[in-house]
Every structure is written in structure tokens, then in C-alpha cells.
Write a structure and sequence with these properties.
Belongs to the universal stress protein A family. The chain is of the alpha/beta class and 280 residues long. It has helices at 16-29, 57-69, 91-102, 126-134, 164-176, 198-209, 227-236, 251-256, 263-271; strands at 6-11, 35-44, 77-83, 106-110, 139-142, 155-159, 183-188, 215-220, 243-247, 275-279.
Length: 280
């Protein structure tokens, strides 16, 4: 069943990375009208009087107000600007609370913050780290702005391992690949002890995808005890893989009935050059 119309929310701090996340949200929002509203949220801290003009709340508000007014009727967007609540541990948690209270379908953040790209790209900024580790909402972390053009749509890599969470991730990719130019690469990267499950997983994927009109293909990588490195190498060596979609944890967490943030998800988040779509 295709997803119902819902809302998409962008968290902004005034940085170029968060502006890029906004434009990525626009790319999703403007096609096929699958979302009711695009929401821009910002939480300020009045104690940070040292912030430059471009990072001040009123400046950010006016900037996004102009961007939204130039694109949409007022019914199609919201600007939610709040001061950090008394007793709130940090701004990042307040953003997650806003997203949860609004029951948005996706929260979009920039992969970097006001300080820009780190020298070591595998060291996560506080905002993206807090968001992916704690969000109860599917999260899109934008490393680069991707756009559809006349002939090419978005290409999603979906990491599948047979767990319920990985099929939930596939559902998210299906919901976002709504344009006829979009395509899915559904990838199973087994460790040697799980290589034999490939046929079963492929069959289930085929049955699953039969319900949808999507362009897709299934790929099983060579078995390896460092299977995630094979996935990252495949993504980073490709010029046309835009988004990598995965669950916050996988098969091992399902077996152990735990909800920890998995090591595979952590590696993909830090090292894959594609934009991240993480499904909790």
C-alpha cells in the first residue's frame, strides 16, 4: 500500500548544511504532492549572544519565510521557531520533541553544523549524532544536495538483511521513490554464516516489491566478515547512488530483542558518501 500524505520537517541552525537539507526537503516535497506540509523548525538559545548575524533567530526566520513564501501557499508550510525550554537538556532534544509531537514522517538535518565540514569526516557533529541515535522518526541526514532532472531520478540503495527493520527501511525507500525516474538497488551483504539466506531474502523481496510499481533490482554481494565495508565501497565507487537507506539496527538486534544503534548503521552513517536515510 502506498504511504498516506504526511509532513516532512527540516531542522535548521542557519548553517549552509542545514540550508542544503532544506533544499533536499524541497526536492521531495515538490514532486507528486505526497506530503501535506513542509515544516522548518529552529530552536534558539538566548544565552548565545555571541552568534553572528546570520545565525541569529530573527535572521534565520526571515530567510526561510522568504524561501517558503516564494514557493508555496501558507497552508503548505509551517515555521516553528522556539526558544530553548527551561530545563531542556539541549536544543537537539527539543527538535526531536517537536518532530515527535507533530508526528512528522521524516526529519531532515544537515550532516554538518555551523562549524562546517570536519577534518575527519567520520567524526560526527553533535546534532547529527544526537538525531540518529535518539530519533524515533525516520531521519534523512544530507551530505550533498541531489536533484532529479529530465531523465534521471533518485537512486536509493536499501540495505536488507532479513530483519523486520530492514523491510521497514525498504518501505521508506518505496515511499520516497515515487517518481517514475527513481530506482531502488536492494542490497544483501552477508557474512559467511548468513550467505545461505540469500535465496530466501531474494524471494521475500520479490514478493514484497510485487505490490509496488517501482524500478528496482536485487544484488547480493560476496560474503565477508566485514560485509559492511563491501557495501560502503560499492556506494562510494558509484557516481549515481544518492541515498543509502537502512535500519538503526538489524538482524542481531532482532534476535537479541534489543534496540541498540547497530555497528553497521554506524559505519554507513560515518563512511558512506551518499545521503543517509535511517529508519528507527
Amino acid at each position: 500500500m502506498e504511504s498516506n500524505k504526511s509532513n516532512i520537517m527540516v531542522a535548521t541552525d542557519g548553517s549552509q548544511a542545514s540550508k542544503q537539507a532544506f533544499f533536499q526537503a524541497v526536492e521531495f516535497f515538490e514532486y507528486k504532492n505526497i506530503f501535506n506540509q513542509i515544516i522548518v523548525a529552529h530552536v534558539s538559545d538566548e544565552s548565545k549572544t555571541y552568534l553572528p548575524f546570520e545565525f541569529q533567530s530573527t535572521t534565520i526566520y526571515e530567510d526561510y519565510k522568504i524561501e517558503l513564501l516564494s514557493r508555496y501557499p501558507e497552508a503548505n508550510y509551517q515555521l516553528i521557531f522556539q526558544e530553548k525550554a527551561q530545563g531542556q537538556e539541549n536544543i537537539r532534544n527539543q527538535i526531536l520533541n517537536i518532530a515527535g509531537n507533530l508526528n512528522v514522517s521524516y526529519l531532515i538535518v544537515g550532516f554538518n553544523g555551523r562549524k562546517g565540514v570536519k577534518q575527519d569526516a567520520t567524526i560526527l557533529g553533535q546534532t547529527v549524532r544526537n538525531s540518529v541515535y535518539n530519533s524515533k522518526i525516520p531521519l534523512i541526514a544530507v551530505k550533498k544536495l541531489y536533484k532529479r532532472d529530465e531523465t534521471n531520478g533518485f537512486k536509493f540503495v536499501v540495505c536488507i538483511d532479513g530483519s523486520k527493520k530492514s523491510y521497514k527501511s525498504l518501505e521508506s525507500a518505496i515511499a520516497l521513490s515515487f517518481d517514475e525516474r527513481d530506482s531502488l538497488l536492494i542490497c544483501f551483504a552477508p557474512t559467511p554464516d548468513r550467505e545461505a539466506f540469500g535465496t530466501t531474502i531474494k524471494t521475500k523481496v520479490e514478493e514484497f516489491m510485487a505490490k509496488y510499481q517501482r524500478k528496482w533490482q536485487y544484488k547480493q554481494l560476496d560474503a565477508s566478515y566485514r560485509a559492511i565495508e563491501n557495501v560502503i565501497e560499492m556506494i562510494n565507487n558509484s557516481d549515481d547512488l544518492d541515498f543509502v537507506v537502512f535500519g538503526s539496527n538489524g538482524y542481531r538486534a532482532q534476535l537479541e530483542n534489543k534496540t541498540f544503534f547497530g555497528s553497521t548503521a554506524d559505519e554507513l552513517l560515518k563512511k558512506a558518501k551518499a545521503n543517509i536515510i535511517m529508519v528507527p
